[in-house]
C-alpha cells in the first residue's frame, strides 16, 4: 500500500515544528510592534524550509504586513536580481518615490541602456532605492521572504545583506532560508550581527512520533520502515511513502544505502520519465524556461500548443509536482525541477534554450533573462547572439559586474578575434575590462586593458586611466604613477586634463608618503586648473594640505584644508560625484588638525554622494577613513562594524590592498573592545603595500603589542630605521609608544627622553590631541619611576587636554592612569574618583576590554590609605627574569601551560617550574592573582 502525502503542502511539513512556529510568531510580533527583525531558516534539502516560510507568510499577512516573497533557482544563478524579480514587484506597485520605483524597475528588467549609452546606475543606488521603497510602503510593515538563498545570484545576495546591515526605518521583516551546508556567508554574518533582532532556526529531522502523526492511516510496520529509511527528512518521507514495503525493507536492511538527495532525485526522475510524452515534454520545457515561466514561454520551448501546456500543467499539479499561479508555472520543490532538468538531456536543453531566447527577444523580455538563455545556446559566429550578450553586459556593468563580464567575454569569444563588432570592439573590450575590474578580477582586467594600449586616442586614454585605478587597488603604487606620468607626457593635453592627472599623481605620492612630491603635483594642478573645475581644485587643495600636514607645516595645511572645504561646500553632489574620493584626504587632514566636527561633516557629505554614485573604489576607502574618525571619537562598536563592511567591499572589488588598509585601521578599535588577542591579526595577514597605510597599521600593531605585554616587539616596530614623517600626527604617537615601551622594558631614562620629545613636538604644534598623548606618556614614565604624585598630576592634565580634543577613549585612559598613580601614592579616595571617571568613559565608548582591566585595578585599592614611598624590589614584575616575565605575560593573556609550552618550544614541566618560581617571587597563589598583579604593576595603554 502506497500513501501519497500532499506534495509540498504546509501541514505535512509542519509536524513537529511547534517551537519553531512560536519563534516565527515572536518575529512577526516584533515587527508589528515597530521593530526590524530577521529570521534565518536553515537545514538540509527537503527538511521543510519552504513550508516554514509559507507559514511565516500566512502569519505576516494576517498581521497586516505587505508580504513580498521570492525564491532563488539553481539554474538561474547567473541572472542578476533574479530572486528579487518577484519580491520587489509588490513594493513597486505599492507606491513610494517615483524615482526609486524607476530605479528598481530598471534593475529588475535590465533596461538600463538607452541609445547605446552605458548606464551608471550602480548597486549602491539600487540598494538604497529598495530601502526607500520599503520605507515608503503604505502598509504598517513589510515582510521580505527569500527562499533557497544558497542558489541566489550575487547581486541578490548583496542586496539582502545590505537590507539586513542597514535596515529600513519602517518596521520590516527579512526572512531567509538556505541549506545548512551552503550558507551565503555575507548574509549569515549580517544576521549574526543583529543580535536579539535575529531569530535563527535550524530545522531538525522528524522523530518517529512526528512521522506517526504525519502518516496516521499507514500501518505501524510501514511507518517504522519509512521512518528508518527516510531518517526523518519530511521530503524523503513523502517520496519513500510511494515505495513498496519490500523496497523500504531493502533500504533499511542495506547499511551501504543512505537515502539522500541523489536518491530522491532518482525517484523523481523516474516519476517524470514515466509521464505521458506530452506531459513529460512540458515538464522538461518548464525546467529549462525557469521558475515562474509563463504558459506562453513554456509552450514555445516545448513546441506544443498552449492548450496542451494547460492540460499538462494541471496533470503535474494533481501529481503534486507543479503549482500554477497567474498563468505562470512553478515546480513545487527545487528537487522536482532539478530532476526534470536532468532528465531532459543536455542536447535537448541547448535547443530549448535557443527557443526560449528567441521567444523572449521577440516579446521584449528582460535582457538579463534573454542573455541567460542565449549564452547557453549560442553557436560560434552568431552575431545576433553576440549583440544580445553585449547589450546585457553593458546594461549590467555596474549593477552586476561579474555577470556582465561573463556575458561580454562570451560575446567576444563567439566572434573571430578580428571581428570589428560594427567598429565597437575596442569599446566592448574596454567595458569588459571595466566589468572585470569592478567584479574583483583585477589581474584579468589588467590583461585586457593592455590589449588597448595601441587603440585610438580616446579608448587608449580611458584604458590607461582605468589601468591606474586597477594598479592602485592592487597596491602597485609605482605602476600607477608610471601610467599616469605616461598619459601626462602626451602632447597637447588640455590644461584641465593635465590638471586632473597632476591631482592623480599627488594622490599616488600621498599614499607613498612622499610629501614634497605630493605638494609639488598639487601645486601644479592648482595652477593648471585656475579655478575652472572647483571639484578638481578642491581635490588638489586637500592633497596639498595632506602633504603639508605630514611635512609639519600645520598652518599651511589648515589654510589649504579650509580652501578645499569652501570649494566643496559650494558645489552640488552631482558635480562632486566623479571626485568623491577627495573627501578622504580632506577629512583625514582635518581630523589630525583637531577639527573633528568638520571631518565628520565631510564624511557625511561623501556618504550621501556615494549612495547615488555608481560603484567605485571610493566606497571602501571612505569607510576606512570614517573608521579612523569614529575610533578617535570613541564610537568603537560602530567603527568595528564599518571596518568589517569595508573589508567585505574590498573583497568584492578584489582589492587586497584596500582590504589590508581596512584591517590595519580596524586593529585599534578591535584592541579596545576585544583586547590583546587581536595582536596577531595583521601579523598573519597581508600588510598594505602603500607606505602610508602600512605605517598606520604598524603603529596600531605596536600599540597592540604593548597591550599584550610585549614591549620588545613594540620597540622593534617604532625603532625601525625606515623613515617616519616629521609632522606631529606621526612623530608624536611614535614617540609616545616608544616611551611607554621603554618604560615597560625597564629603561626609564630612555623613556623619559622620548616622552619629553613628544611633549616638545606637541606643544610646538599646539594640537590638543597630541599634547594629551604626550602628557600621558610623561605620566606613564613617572609612574614607572615611582614618582606617583607627579604621575597623577601629569595624567590629570593629559585627561583635560584629551577631553578638549574630543578623544573620550584616550581621556578615560588618562583618568585610569591617574587612578593607578593616586592609589600607589596612598590616596585611595582620589584613586576611586579617577577610576569612576575612567569607567564612565570606557562604558560610553564600549571599550569592553579596558573595562575588564580597570576592574582589576579598582579591586586592588587598599581599604586603608597606605603610602608607597619605596620602589618595590620583590613582589612585582621587576623581580622576574626575562623568561619568567614572558611566561607570566602569557598566563595573563589566558594561555594554558600546554599552550605556553608550545609557543615557547618548552616542555610543559619546564613551564610549570618557571610558574612555581613566579608565584613565589610575586607572592601570589593563583593564575588569577598573577594576572591582577601584573596588570596592577603596569598600567595599560
From TrEMBL:
Molecular function via GO: adenylate cyclase activity; ATP binding; DNA binding
Keywords, sorted A to Z: ATP-binding, Nucleotide-binding
GO BP annotations listed: regulation of DNA-templated transcription
Gene3D superfamilies assigned to the protein according to its UniProt record, in alphabetical order: Tetratricopeptide repeat domain, Winged helix-like DNA-binding domain superfamily/Winged helix DNA-binding domain
SMART domains: HTH_LUXR
Domain HTH luxR-type: 873-938
InterPro entries, A to Z: AAA_16, P-loop_NTPase, Sig_transdc_resp-reg_C-effctor, TPR-like_helical_dom_sf, Tscrpt_reg_LuxR_C, WH-like_DNA-bd_sf
Pfam family, one: GerE
PANTHER family to which the protein is assigned, alphabetical: TESTICULAR SOLUBLE ADENYLYL CYCLASE, TRANSCRIPTIONAL ACTIVATOR DOMAIN
Protein name: Helix-turn-helix transcriptional regulator
The organism of origin for this protein: Micromonospora craniellae
Lineage per the UniProt record: Bacteria, Bacillati, Actinomycetota, Actinomycetes, Micromonosporales
Amino acid at each position: 500500500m502506497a500513501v501519497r502525502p500532499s506534495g509540498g503542502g504546509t501541514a505535512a511539513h509542519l509536524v513537529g515544528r511547534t517551537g519553531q512556529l512560536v519563534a516565527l510568531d515572536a518575529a512577526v510580533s516584533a515587527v508589528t510592534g515597530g521593530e526590524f527583525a530577521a529570521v534565518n531558516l536553515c537545514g538540509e534539502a527537503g527538511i521543510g524550509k519552504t513550508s516554514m516560510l509559507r507559514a511565516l507568510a500566512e502569519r505576516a499577512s494576517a498581521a497586516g504586513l505587505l508580504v513580498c516573497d521570492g525564491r532563488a533557482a539553481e539554474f538561474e544563478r547567473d541572472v542578476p536580481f533574479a530572486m528579487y524579480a518577484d519580491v520587489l514587484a509588490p513594493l513597486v506597485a505599492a507606491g513610494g518615490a517615483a524615482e526609486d520605483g524607476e530605479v528598481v524597475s530598471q534593475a529588475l528588467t535590465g533596461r538600463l541602456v538607452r541609445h547605446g549609452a552605458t548606464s551608471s546606475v550602480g548597486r549602491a543606488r539600487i540598494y538604497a532605492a529598495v530601502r526607500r521603497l520599503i520605507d515608503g510602503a503604505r502598509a504598517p510593515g513589510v515582510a521580505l521572504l527569500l527562499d533557497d538563498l544558497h542558489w541566489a545570484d550575487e547581486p541578490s545576495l548583496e542586496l539582502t545583506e545590505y537590507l539586513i546591515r542597514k535596515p529600513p526605518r519602517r518596521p520590516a521583516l527579512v526572512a531567509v532560508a538556505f541549506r545548512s551546508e551552503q550558507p551565503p556567508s555575507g548574509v549569515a554574518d549580517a544576521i549574526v550581527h543583529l543580535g536579539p533582532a535575529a531569530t535563527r532556526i535550524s530545522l531538525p529531522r522528524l522523530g518517529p512520533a512526528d512521522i506517526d502523526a504525519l502518516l496516521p492511516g499507514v500501518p505501524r510496520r510501514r511507518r517504522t520502515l519509512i521512518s528508518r529509511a527516510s531518517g526523518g527528512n519530511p521530503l524523503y518521507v513523502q517520496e519513500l511513502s510511494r515505495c513498496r514495503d519490500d523496497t523500504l525493507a531493502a533500504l533499511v536492511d542495506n547499511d551501504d544505502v543512505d537515502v539522500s538527495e541523489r536518491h530522491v532525485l532518482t525517484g523523481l526522475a523516474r516519476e517524470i520519465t514515466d509521464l505521458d510524452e506530452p506531459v513529460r515534454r512540458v515538464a522538461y520545457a518548464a525546467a529549462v524556461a525557469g521558475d515562474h515561466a509563463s504558459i506562453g514561454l513554456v509552450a514555445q520551448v516545448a513546441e506544443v500548443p498552449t492548450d496542451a501546456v494547460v492540460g499538462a500543467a494541471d496533470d503535474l499539479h494533481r501529481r503534486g509536482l507543479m503549482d500554477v499561479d497567474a498563468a505562470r508555472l512553478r515546480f513545487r520543490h527545487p528537487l522536482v525541477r532539478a530532476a526534470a532538468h536532468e532528465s531532459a538531456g543536455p542536447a535537448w536543453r541547448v535547443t530549448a534554450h535557443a527557443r526560449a531566447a528567441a521567444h523572449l527577444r521577440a516579446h521584449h523580455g528582460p535582457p538579463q533573462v534573454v542573455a541567460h538563455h542565449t549564452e547557453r545556446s549560442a553557436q560560434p559566429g552568431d552575431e545576433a547572439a553576440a549583440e544580445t550578450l553585449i547589450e546585457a553586459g553593458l546594461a549590467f556593468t555596474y549593477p552586476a559586474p561579474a555577470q556582465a563580464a561573463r556575458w561580454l567575454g562570451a560575446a567576444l569569444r563567439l566572434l573571430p578575434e578580428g571581428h570589428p563588432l560594427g567598429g565597437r570592439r575596442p569599446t566592448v573590450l574596454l567595458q569588459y575590462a571595466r566589468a572585470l575590474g569592478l567584479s574583483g578580477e583585477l589581474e584579468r582586467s589588467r590583461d585586457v586593458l593592455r590589449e588597448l594600449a595601441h587603440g585610438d586616442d580616446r579608448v587608449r586614454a580611458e584604458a590607461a586611466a582605468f589601468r591606474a585605478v586597477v594598479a592602485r587597488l592592487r597596491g602597485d603604487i609605482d605602476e600607477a604613477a608610471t601610467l599616469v606620468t605616461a598619459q601626462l607626457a602626451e602632447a597637447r593635453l588640455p590644461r584641465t586634463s593635465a590638471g586632473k592627472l597632476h591631482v592623480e599623481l599627488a594622490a599616488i605620492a600621498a599614499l607613498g608618503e612622499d610629501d614634497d612630491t605630493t605638494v609639488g603635483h598639487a601645486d601644479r594642478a592648482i595652477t593648471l586648473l585656475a579655478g575652472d573645475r572647483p571639484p578638481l581644485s578642491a581635490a588638489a587643495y586637500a592633497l596639498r594640505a595632506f602633504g603639508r600636514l605630514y611635512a609639519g607645516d600645520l598652518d599651511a595645511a589648515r589654510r589649504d584644508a579650509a580652501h578645499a572645504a569652501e570649494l566643496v561646500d559650494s558645489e552640488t553632489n552631482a558635480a562632486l560625484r566623479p571626485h568623491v574620493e577627495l573627501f578622504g584626504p580632506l577629512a583625514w587632514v582635518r581630523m589630525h588638525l583637531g577639527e573633528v566636527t568638520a571631518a565628520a561633516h565631510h564624511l557625511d557629505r561623501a556618504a550621501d554622494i556615494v549612495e547615488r554614485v555608481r560603484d567605485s573604489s571610493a566606497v571602501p576607502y571612505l569607510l576606512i577613513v570614517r573608521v579612523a574618525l569614529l575610533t578617535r571619537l570613541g564610537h568603537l562598536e560602530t567603527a568595528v562594524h564599518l571596518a568589517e563592511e569595508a573589508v567585505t567591499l574590498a573583497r568584492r572589488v578584489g582589492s587586497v590592498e584596500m582590504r589590508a588598509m581596512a584591517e590595519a585601521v580596524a586593529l585599534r578599535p578591535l584592541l579596545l573592545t576585544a583586547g590583546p588577542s587581536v595582536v596577531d591579526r595583521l601579523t598573519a595577514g597581508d600588510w598594505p603595500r602603500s607606505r602610508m597605510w602600512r605605517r598606520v597599521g604598524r603603529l596600531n600593531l605596536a600599540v597592540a603589542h604593548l597591550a599584550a605585554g610585549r614591549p620588545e616587539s613594540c620597540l622593534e616596530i617604532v625603532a625601525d630605521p625606515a623613515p617616519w614623517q616629521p609632522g606631529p600626527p606621526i612623530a608624536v604617537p611614535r614617540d609616545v609608544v616608544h616611551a611607554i615601551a621603554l618604560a615597560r622594558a625597564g629603561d626609564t631614562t630612555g623613556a623619559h627622553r622620548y616622552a619629553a620629545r613628544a611633549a616638545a613636538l606637541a606643544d610646538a604644534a599646539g594640537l590638543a590631541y597630541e599634547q594629551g598623548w604626550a602628557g600621558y606618556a610623561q605620566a606613564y614614565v613617572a609612574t614607572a619611576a615611582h614618582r606617583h604624585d607627579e604621575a597623577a598630576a601629569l595624567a590629570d592634565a593629559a585627561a583635560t587636554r584629551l577631553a578638549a580634543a574630543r578623544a573620550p577613549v584616550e581621556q578615560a585612559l588618562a583618568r585610569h592612569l591617574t587612578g593607578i598613580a593616586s592609589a600607589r601614592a596612598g590616596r585611595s579616595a582620589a584613586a576611586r574618583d579617577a577610576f569612576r571617571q575612567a569607567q564612565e568613559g570606557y562604558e560610553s565608548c564600549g571599550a569592553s576590554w579596558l573595562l575588564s582591566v580597570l576592574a582589576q585595578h579598582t579591586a586592588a585599592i587598599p581599604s586603608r590609605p597606605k603610602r608607597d614611598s619605596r620602589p618595590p624590589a620583590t613582589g612585582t614584575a621587576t623581580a622576574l627574569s626575562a623568561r619568567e616575565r614572558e611566561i607570566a605575560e602569557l598566563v595573563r593573556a589566558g594561555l594554558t601551560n600546554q599552550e605556553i609550552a608550545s609557543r615557547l618550544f618548552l616542555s610543559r614541566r619546564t613551564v610549570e617550574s618557571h610558574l612555581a618560581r613566579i608565584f613565589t617571587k610575586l607572592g601570589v597563589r593563583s593564575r588569577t592573582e598573577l594576572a591582577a598583579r601584573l596588570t596592577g604593576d603596569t598600567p595599560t595603554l
